[in-house]
Amino acid sequence: MKTQRYTLHGYWLQTSTAIGRLSMEDPNLQWVKHMVEFKIDSNEKEGDDSNMELYKVYSRDFFIPTQIELRLMAHFSKDQSLIDLLLTPLGDVFNMITAKWSGKEESLVGPKERDQTKRLIYGILYGIGANSLVEQLEWSSDDARDKIQSFKRSFPRVASWLKEFVAD
């Protein structure tokens, strides 16, 4: 049996975005789908698919950090509740977070709420205040403040870590 191993190496860009997020290029492995299928013709015969071999590449074959900033926030804050959510093998972490701090069942969290939670979390992490969230998410000032406080109550170690290490 013949096997070949191919490895893709991208370049991490640590200082290329205005808000400090990590990005990648050449190739951008952050955008690789979960599974890529491709066929290689071993005999190179025109029009004959019988000799094609199917290969599958899974995202676990790459180091593709998802929610890297959220994972770093969980690590540095040592918020066990957030760490436990990130270690859950199935499910969407932003749906789980939304369910936790809003008191809803995870199955009842809609795409809009998920997106708002994601933007709220990254906004909090990057120091976006309630006024900016009001503009970006079209919330009232009271809603924005309430949701920020609700998130911080649900993840108290994150709140104290932010207070100690992230400038207002």
From TrEMBL:
Listed Pfam families: DNA_pol_A
A biological-process GO annotation: DNA-templated DNA replication
Signal peptide region: none
Domain DNA-directed DNA polymerase family A palm, residue spans: 4-166
Entry-linked Gene3D superfamilies: 3.30.70.370, 5' to 3' exonuclease, C-terminal subdomain (1.10.150.20)
Protein origin, superkingdom: Eukaryota
Any one Gene Ontology molecular-function term assigned to this protein's record: DNA binding
Entry protein name: DNA-directed DNA polymerase family A palm domain-containing protein
Lineage: Eukaryota, Viridiplantae, Streptophyta, Embryophyta, Tracheophyta
